[in-house]
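Lay summary. Proteins are chains of building blocks that fold into shapes, and those shapes determine what they do. In this project we predict the shape from the chain. Here is one chain we studied, written as its sequence of building blocks.
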Amino acid sequence: MSLFLVLPPATSAQPSPAWIRVAVSRDDPQVMLQIHGRFRITDLETHAQIHEGRRLNLVAVRAAPSGLVLGEEVLPHVGVRIEPSSGAAISLNGRRLRGVLEIVRQQNLTLLVVNHVELEDYLRGVLSKEAPDYWPDEALKAIAIAARTYALYQRFTKEAGPYDVTGDVMSQDYGGKTGEKAATTRAVKATTDVIVMHQGKLFPTFYHSTCGGMTEHARVMGSYDLEPLRGGILCAFCSASPFYSWQRRLTKADVNWALRNSRHGPIGPISDVQVTKRTASGRAEEVTIVSASRTLRLTGFDVRALFGFDRIRSPLFSVTPTDGAFILEGRGWGHGVGLCQWGAAELARRGFSAREILAFYYPRADLVRLRDLADQPIAVMGGGS
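And here is the predicted shape, written in a compact code that computers can read:
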């Protein structure tokens, strides 16, 4: 274990200057906007001021061929930037957000809404959604460091795109200012400026709810072959998770309906569903669905996406055919790569520090302060490194 850094006390930590771009709404035709306090709206491309006010009552914002429609006012702009003054707050669809907001009309007349927010403020809205605030402090600190590192990795690898992360579980769940809680905010402040690196480089510190007994290799997330993410870590600490074991019944009609409404298309009456290949940790790498006319091979991720990530909680499952249906018996929730959150909580209860928890789930990684990297470019590990 080479995680050697002692975490800085909350009183001495200074906020990081880094900003994160969070896609808080994608492909919606309309959002509800409200601003509590003074604000300014500018054109996203020219930076010319469009409007300034003391308060904006709740209005609908929608995309239109001519630009954006704010309430009853048509704005002939493809994109706008909304900047609240100090002390003011933006509310989007009932959720208060820190930072500034950019609203862009997309070609299909839907909206892309991106929240530009300081890294530490972003984490306050993430940790409260990603971990229960009653968990031990050391577990919350470990998850905060992992979440900070993941966000920074996305920032440095998504710079060419319109945003760094999404505000949902496909990146990190983000509740904005509305979701912040005292205990999780303390954990963010106590670890301010601390990230995880391997061989002096940022890497994607994936984490998940419950591994179900063993972590997974990061290759299931892409072309990653990084020492801290090679998986195979036996985790006997997440058995108290309510998601440690689960069962789902899928009828043949369920499978047919899901396929018919997906990119895979209908394949006719289903005769069999079975796991035909597994990863080293036992997760479904290939699932074969057979009909009279076609055989379809999906990854474990595909199966979860097909039936819903909340319904098929992890790819660690077996399939047993029964009368007109298939019983899936599974363990864990999430992809299984990196830090197991329920395992981290149990380790903390047993007296492990955040440093030791991170060392357990990310072997041979180091804790580093961002301020120590201020005078040098931050190196990033790519897939296949």
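What the prediction tells us: Confidence is low (pLDDT under 50) at residues 1-17.
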